Amino acid sequence: MAVGIKTMAIVVAALGIKSFVHGILAENKKPASGEPNVFHGFVICEYSSDPAVYFGFISFAFLVASTTTGLYSVFYPYKGKSVPLNALVQNATWVVFFLVALCVSCFAGAMLLWATITELLHLTHKVHHNMNTDCPTAKTGLFGGAAFMALNASLFWLISLMLTDNTRDDYFDDDLPEISKGIDGKVYTVDSNEKQQIKVQECP
């Protein structure tokens, strides 16, 4: 079964939305801080149920899947026809959105990993020798910001895919043979190479 551009777009969007939802869940489920238990010379932090790390890693996984699918969809040979890279890079708008999609995806992934690993470190390193510690968690807003960046990344991949579709149409339209009617009434087809030869012969 051949994969179409619409199918690829749906997959990229669905994965991006899943990454966004799990990032928001990580932000909402993360406790503001832990409860310090003071002992002689050290403090042990107790945290309530904190699934933020779980949701954070899932959000990152969906972001990687969305980015990989978006990157693959841009260069996928739909209907068995692939557009060469030099034809794509001639479209300045495509280049801009493609690079933006890559950068936003990397930034979103870095934010998600930063927030998730920070939260994991807080949960695993519970013993503190600083008696004034307030048992912190990952900074508020990191998961939420990363979630929105992941959603934006999928949107930029969708725009890149749309521009790829336009470039494909322009590229393959130029390769279509031109149908013309001769003096004898017969129908002839002239491909792009023959059209160039005719133009050269017509020049004085």
TrEMBL record:
Its localization reads: Endomembrane system
PANTHER family xrefs: OS07G0462200 PROTEIN-RELATED
Question: Where are the annotated coiled coils located?
Answer: none
Q: What does the similarity note say?
A: Belongs to the DESIGUAL family.
Q: Which UniProt keywords apply?
A: Membrane, Signal, Transmembrane, Transmembrane helix
Q: Which GO terms describe its cellular component?
A: endomembrane system
- Full protein name: Uncharacterized protein
User: Can the keyword Transmembrane helix be found in this entry's annotation?
Assistant: yes
Membrane topology recorded in Swiss-Prot or TrEMBL:
Multi-pass membrane protein
- What transmembrane ranges does the database entry give? 52-75, 95-117, 137-159
